[in-house]
Specification:
Elements lengths: L6 E2 L2 E2 L3 H5 L3 H4 L11 H4 L1 H14 L3 E6 L2 E3 L3 H7 L7 H15 L1 E5 L13 E3 L4 E6 L2 E8 L6 E4 L4 E5 L17 H18 L7 E5 L5 H15 L14 E5 L4 H21 L17 H32 L7 E5 L7 H16 L5 H8 L19 H8 L1
Antiparallel strand pairs: 1-2, 3-4, 3-13, 5-6, 5-10, 7-8, 8-9, 11-12
Amino acid sequence: MKIKSLFFRGKKLRSMNEVNNADVSEDFAVPEKKACTDPYLEHSWASVCVDILARNVARAEFEIRKGGGAVTDNDVAKLFRYPNKTLSRFDLWKQTCAWWSLDGEAFWWFGEDYVCGIPKEIYILNPRNMQHVVNDGKVTKWVYTDGGSGKPIFILPDELIHFKDWNPWNEYRGVSPLVSLGLEVEQDLLASKQNTGLLKEGGVPKGLLKTDQVLTETEAEILARTWDSKYGHGMKNRVAVLGKGTEYQPLTFSPDVLKLYDMKKWNLYTLLAKYGIPPRVANIQDSKSSLSGTDTDSQHRAFWNFTLIPLLRNFEQILEVQFFRRFNLPYEGIFNLNSIPELQESEDAQSNRDIAEINAGLKTINDVLRARGEKEKPWGDIWFRPSTLIPVNESSSEKV
């Protein structure tokens, strides 16, 4: 089926070939989104969501394993532990996840000195400065524009690793998770600007001084200055004495202004749902619910089980294809989650189930070790029956 054109939110895009050869940000640049050009900079909760994902992903230790055991003394392990002279292991995964969460893709470059074989360095590039060149349906080279010098750098596909999320509009690039939340982000930004305007000078006054007297412009100015000097600027618990025929009428927010807060709350939960972040993980407490420790722990475990772990497994599979298989390495890269406190309770429950199944003869020690990716024991394939167990037929005969 040949697709001649695409439509996105009322805007006709270019042909499929043009879309695949264009920059991702241009594919989704609609006029309505110009109010918020950089969500990470301009939208506070978008920034919070990205930071929560990035710093938690970096907490998981990435290990190089062979035969179920961790390897630490070879070139591959050292590469992921010390990516380059200025980049730490923590920053490697933090920045990778941050770009993935913002633009739906991330690039690892092997550096200018790379020729062939296993790379010695890894650099993270800005996806927004990457342009791809397609020939015969394949990316033949990448052009990276250095943000400092503006000098283009030509990079071959074999000189980098491309992490990208599925993109239905451009098969060669990732797509930002925020692309479907453009209106929500813009609404929040405009609502925040309107609320800020109410707090600044020149906004809606807190009240009105009403009188049945005819005031000249000079008298009105004197009355306003007198009122402001005595009862304005944070003055509290002062007794106001009003002249003949003068009354004070307080003003409240209009219903339309109050609706902004409900809208911002709805957009916040939509943003959290998109990124798979439970409210308690973002330190958000619903006023109608109690802050119980059980509920908080449950949401933190759910955050790892249903958001972070699938994301980490995705990263593992990308590296399996683009790194370990590319260089024909007898290793695998695995995120070790044994040190994550939020998962300890579930791991303890799994250990209790493993012990129960071993005692029942459903598993052996090596079955459990293989499932955990750990080194097997020489005697682990033998099942040891607990000495307290008595065969049914023998027990029955003794009773008779």
